[in-house]
Amino acid sequence: MKILARRVAWVVYLTMCFSLLIVPVANAYIDAGSGSFVFQAVIAFGLASAVAVRSSWGRIRSFFRGRSHPE
Amino acid sequence: MSHRIAGSFRDPSGFVFREDGVVKRQVNPGFRSEFDALANSGLYDELVGAGLLVSHQVEREDADGTVVIVPRQVPFVSYPYEWSAGQLRAAALVTLRAQRAALERGMTLRDASAFNVQFVDGRPLLIDTLSFGPLEEGMPWVGYRQFCQHFLAPLALMTLVDVRLGQLSRHHLDGVPLDLASTLLPQRTRVVPSLAMHIHAHARSQRRYAHDPDAPTARAKGRFSMNAFRGLVDSLESAVAKLERDVPESTWVDYYDGDSYTDESFEHKSKLVAAFLADVEPAQVWDLGANTGHFSRIAASQGAQVVAFDVDASAVEAHYRALRGERSAILPLVMDLTNPSPGLGWEHTERESLTARGPVDLALALALVHHLAIGDNVPLRRVADWFAALASALVIEFVGKSDPKVRRLLATRDDVFDDYDVEGFEAAFAGRFDTLRREPVHGSERVLYLMRRR
User: Fold this and answer.
1) Do B224 and A41 touch (CB under 8 A)?
2) Number of domains in chain A
3) What is the pLDDT of residues B366-385, one digit of tens each?
4) Is A4 in CB contact (< 8 Å) with chain B?
5) Given this model, what pLDDT does residue B214 score?
6) Where are the beta strands (DSSP E) in B303-374?
């Protein structure tokens, strides 16, 4: 299951990298702000997950550290 | 006598003005609640205590809600296109730290302009007190685009492509367009997760929705959780923190180690500069062609606020890093004196030219005149004219044709500089300055002058 999840993550990552290799056509934008706004909504889940994972990992680590080195 | 400072005219929340030589900020009645929230949330005290935001005193509160504050004065206003990569990076990190602190107190930065950061005592400081407003739950960061364009994109270009690309910010005052940055960055950055996301994919999203009246911006509202916001700031901070490289090699960084001086003449010149500065006791000094700042440090040690200009971004970076972490009265900046920062923006007044930011008490022009007169064909009389517009006193060095540095300049060009000798130099400057002291530098054929503008 873990291996499958890792493979899926790799495929998503490589697809993203590949799509970015195509150089976009330059434009003078009427409004660059909308794209920035929508883009944040697109990446929100990933950003929030990263924070959640970091904070859980910190809690786990401090739990075990607390157990192995009681004050 | 008061007048508005042009750089703040776009801001509906207030404006900056100068009254009797003191810079002040007016908070408009419509923005009063946001301004009060900054103090009431505890954010103002936290940011000022952490050295992230400029402190201020409230001077006046009117019945209609208008407030006038007097912020701590910034000795010299510099612009992002005059900063080295390290300075831009430090300014970016200060912006993100302030944003992180704001989030935890239910506030947010409403914009993330690099022009809102100034260097005071050698450290970057947010100067726009009115940039903070209450956080609207679920709203993405309105300053995200600006942060990427003002900080991340130029920093990535300066660090990963060429430090001279910092000059793109001089043309693009609202930051380097992300599609341009995406085109200029090396292909390998498309697989660096932080740059792939915040520059390349971000640029594609901008392009996709730039002309789309049905862009789903409404749907984006309400979907941005606090953890997403924290994650965004963490991710940007990690991207910025990684953008630091060794100071690139350059001829100028090692200039003092070359063949221009013997130890004896360099030491004598240092003593003469210190003595000349002590005669004038300037409060503000501009070191023109400062290199890595040996003479700037002499001026600062005598209590002057010093701006140290050099054309070479590597020399400025080396100078900044030598001062980093200490409280310093020296501000190193990148400046091509043959093409100095012009007046920019709306009506050429939003960002001031270098000359408009003067004059100062004293300018140092050491080992500089031969580069302007011979290297760049600027007649000595015109050099004197411009220096007279920059400073009321001048410590200036004349380097004759017999000097190895001048011989090198002349090696590849015809010597058409008939007036370039001590007599010609003194005659050119006599039109604008009185010579107060004139001392030959031991062990060289150089001459050092202390001059006062007429």
Assistant:
1) yes
2) 1
3) 999 999 999 999 999 999 99
4) no
5) 75
6) 305-310, 330-334, 360-365
